[in-house]
Amino acid sequence: MEYYALQVKTGSEEKYINLFKIKHPEADIRLHFLQRRLPIRRGGKVQQELAPIFPGYIFLETGTNLQSSLYWALRKTDGFFRFLKSNQDVRALSGHDLEIVTHFLKYGSVAEKSKVYFDEQDRIIVQEGPLKGLEGNIIKVDKRKGRAKIRLDLDNAPFTIDLAFEFITKSSD
């Protein structure tokens, strides 16, 4: 599979996907908008909200190289800004960018809470979930809120996001 990154209007990612599917139902591709579920406390009540992992980006999954007709169909859909690297130099994701995107794709379109525990030195140990494999990218842990701030980069542009976790008791190995 080949994966491409499209930059679209931030906040309109789902609208772009729906619009593209309506205009081009015959297209043999999958468009992924990666999100994470976070517990948000408002007015003393905790609610689960969805937030994008990569705001303003949609990932195109196709079995072949990007065909000219598909390229133009994607570009002409309202809300489209550009392909990564650029519209003149469209390349499939590779290397670190591909690893990060496929890491989140294996947890589905919505990343749920990771299951973690803390060892004797108060270090976070991830048992399962989207944080698994990203332990080296964790820059801050907020135990009270149940969130870990991680640093990622896409197309050599670093950014930070919060991912939710829940405590579990350490399994006896």
Automatic annotation (TrEMBL):
An example Gene Ontology biological process: transcription antitermination
Domain NusG-like N-terminal: 1-99
Pfam families named among the record's database cross-references: NusG
InterPro entries per UniProt: NGN-like_dom (IPR006645), NGN_dom_sf (IPR036735), NusG-like (IPR043425), Rib_uL2_dom2 (IPR014722), Transcription_antiterm_LoaP (IPR047663), Translation_prot_SH3-like_sf (IPR008991)
Keywords from the UniProt entry: Transcription, Transcription antitermination, Transcription regulation
Domain of life: Bacteria
Family annotation (PANTHER family): KOW MOTIF FAMILY PROTEIN, EXPRESSED, RHO-INTERACTING TRANSCRIPTION TERMINATION FACTOR NUSG
Descriptive protein name: NusG antitermination factor
Source organism of the structure: Gracilinema caldarium (strain ATCC 51460 / DSM 7334 / H1) (Treponema caldarium)
